[in-house]
Amino acid sequence: MKKYIFPMMLALAGCAVPVNPVAERAVATQTTLPPMKVFISKPQRVGPRANADIARDFLDLSFQMESGRELERFTRFEGPIRIATTRGAPASLTRDLDGLIGRLQREAGIDIRRARQGETVNILIETLPRATMQAIVPQAACFVVPRVQNWSEFRRSRRTAKTDWASLEKRERVTIFIPGDVSPQEIRDCLHEETAQALGPLNDLYRLSDSVFNDDNFHTVLTGFDMLVLRAYYDPSLKNGMTRDEVAARLPAILSRLNPGGQNIRASMQTPTPRAWSRAVETALGPKASDELRLKSAKRAVEIANGANWRDGRTAFSLFILGRMSMATDPDLALASYMQAASFYQSMGSETVQAAHVAMQMAAFALSSGNADAVIGIVDANISAARISENAALLASLMMLKAEALALQGKSDAASALRIDSLGWARYGFGSDRDVRARLAEIAALTPRKGPL
Q1: Is there a smaller number of Cβ atoms within 10 Å at the N or the C end of the chain?
Q2: Is 1.25.40.10 the CATH classification of the domain at 21-38+273-444?
Q3: Which of 346, 349, 319 lies closest to 333, judged by CA?
Q4: What is the pTM of this model?
């Protein structure tokens, strides 16, 4: 279940300056936006990781639910898997589903394809208005449910044994519910995560830095690690009904075959994530808390991470959240938090999408202070990570920031070309023309006024 769709934060309350007239005019005169740009689905690289770590992660993902509830047995689909969408699915969903199916076939070795007329559907994808979904399940951006065929049946059966994953002996039919009135990128993000959970693990782990099975939601398309987990999940040596110990006994041989490079890497010593930290994060990011409580919870998450001496993505994510929650009231704290988060993320490896998210915020600070050189340097160092992770909203935002910096340097032609190029990605990432223009105007508003034309 995808819990959060993170807004692409940029507004720097306390730092904002009057709108640059040049940028404002560019937004107003762009009456027709260019065609939407889309990513071509490509295999994602599997980073170096010890097989002992992968086995531990596999077990924690597969034998526990996000609520913390233990699962007694291993379940998956047996035989060919057929997937379909309900009538009226957005065109972008149809295209992105084809790309996902191709990747699952090639990278995870799963026998999955679209259901033909008359075939039994194992995974059904139903789209409906976001407001309809969140009136019933307000904490979820999208989710997957076993043993139901449509939204009406889910409403009748929720909170009953019928929709209880723990009661399954094997998987035969599930339905994924996705909002159809959001941006193409949000639809695709839900498609990837919920299809992965429909097929395999039901849990998310904050300690995973290179996976969609992580509630930080930085990775929004299935990664190389995720495909490796799914390939192992459907290995012939695993069977429905196996216990955790039985699966654990088979994993070393499975991973030795699938990831031979991981045999010679030393296992890491990651500590468990305490529930107190997860609660602090969920409160800071959840829909119900006051701004004061959000900030307090973000600070608490940082305190817990520092107390545990974590040197991984959990500390960086805590700092990232603190940066977001303090922007409106304490820009200095926000910038300091982002800088610390960037240091942690950069230590995890080059070109990480997490570092690119932090970089976007730091570039916004640099732009608001009129430091064009810094903006361009920050964007150039991080833009490839946005492309690799197929995050169009992030990519477009970085391009818009650089375009404003080029304009500050007097390079108006280069700025205009880059700004227009960003709009095709923005249409995929943000959706409606109104939202695209709003994003462009928001970034233009960060640029210091240069005086009357």
Answers
A1: C
A2: yes
A3: 319
A4: 0.91
